[in-house]
Amino acid sequence: MSIEFSYPVSRRSLLGAGAGLLLTTALRSLPARAAVPVDHRIMAAPTRARLAGEGHPETDVWAYNNTVPGPIVRLRQGEPARIIVENHLDQDTTVHWHGIRLPNAMDGVPGLTQPPIKPGESFTYEFTPPDAGTFWYHPHANSLEQLGRGLAGAIIVEERETVPVDRDLLWLLADWRLTSGGEIASGFGNRMEAAMSGRVGNTVTLSGQVSEEEPIRAGERIRLRLVNGSLARVMALRFEGHRPVIVAIDGQPCDPHEPEGGRILLGPAMRIDVALDMQGEPGRRYRVIDDFYDGLSYWVTQLAYGEKPPIREHPPDAPLSLLRNPLAEPDLANADRHELTLQGGMMGGGAMTGMGGMMGGMMGMGGGAAWAINGMSMTGDGHAGMEPALTFQRGHSVVLVLRNETAWWHPMHFHGHSFRVLSRNGVRVPHRQWQDTVLMAPRDAVEVAFVADNPGDWMLHCHVIDHQMAGMMTVLRVA
Ligand code: C2O
Ligand code: CU
What we know:
The chain has six helices and 31 strands. By secondary structure, the chain is mainly beta. The protein folds into three domains: 135 residues, Cupredoxins -  blue copper proteins (Immunoglobulin-like), CATH 2.60.40; 139 residues, Immunoglobulin-like (Sandwich), CATH 2.60.40.420; 147 residues, Cupredoxins -  blue copper proteins (Immunoglobulin-like, Sandwich), CATH 2.60.40.420. The strands form six sheets. Strands 20, 21, 23, 25, 26, 27 and 29 form a seven-stranded mixed sheet that branches. A six-stranded mixed sheet has the order 10-9-12-17-14-15, with no helix packed on it. It is globular. The N and C termini lie far apart (58 Å).
């Protein structure tokens, strides 16, 4: 290939010019394309994967289509999709399409939105993604073990227009607890752990393998889609020698901005798209460091520049900016206000605090609860008969105040909606991003707002899966 790299322009102008012609010549095939959803087939099954890289033993995992992570599911904004999920595990499963605003019956919560998919059976998910962006899918049944053994994959909902970058990359970061023999350590659902930070592992993979380096061409502009598919590990990524610009959070485009202190904070289940102008020197390596936990910093990979000269002299002038998705703007002046207080967990001395009598009772009932929301502990993954903690009227604007009264971090996820993050501890959040998962530091109070426009019973839970399983979960109803 001798084609010199040229900066691709948006296809809009080209399409605009040819649109009339296209319409007359291709008219017959258009209705067919619009009506027929693209089929995807996803099979959950045990397999083996080389997580630690060449020269290391393989690990027994559970995976979608025999790969870790599962295949990237590519959908198109506003076009119907049909995804057939086959269960070849020896236990029930479901798939949750994390962050996609879809009909309730397609949300993948066992008992609440669908019966679980039994071993040997399949379920067909059908929905039309309204938002372009980076999403992911994972089980919502026996979630701690199923996600912890490898069942996860990314979804890219493509924009209607070409995004002007040289490369579109996706890193699905996952955290594993491996034994010295390379197997996944047992002990899922350890109660002590569940009441603390959750199951943080010892091996971080980048799209299925421990990564030594990722090849980079000097001068290129990359859209890097970061997905934190960990059970419990919070990440704070720094790109040595580079200045990533955040262009989307949880699939939703935002004002392009550099992360605070140059660290990209990525809680479990969060996605952040960054624009990276590769301004490093040809032949050099730059580490990507995660230093979230004090004293436990490590590098995720290295950006390994090839020897070739930069493909362009200077980075493109304009920042990468993505078109907004069609989200309804909440009417803050007339919004219904509600509070959700996160409670429980271990304190310094190992005592359970902040639980009240309610929690004592729940724990006595053998529910294994360590956490609560507004004094109630919903444990597990979702089941029938979960009564909603709050009911919103369809179409109403809602402001939710999430109060973290615990000593731990919690990435709080709401199904079926995206919310605007308005403030943190009384201070207005600069870009008021749309997110579906908001990371809360100990003692944080966060205000989020959204229009309750998607009817159904929706989960709200912590995405540290041990926390969810141990009671940090509730159901909110849009009626
Ligand atoms: Cu990513 Cu309730 O889930
Ligand atoms: Cu939590």
